[in-house]
Design brief:
Blueprint: H1 2-38
């Protein structure tokens, strides 16, 4: 039982960390593309 909870917690932590990194990278790319369009 405890092992199942630990594995589930680790999986969820990895999932949310990956989601956060993808979100930050997407925002950075979007900002860079907007800057290039405006010629800054």
């Amino acid at each position: 039982m405890a092992l199942t909870l630990i594995i589930t917690a680790l999986f969820l932590s990895a999932f949310f960390s990956g989601t956060e990194i993808a979100f930050v990278a997407a925002n950075r790319l979007r900002v860079e593309m907007r800057a290039r369009r405006r010629g800054i």
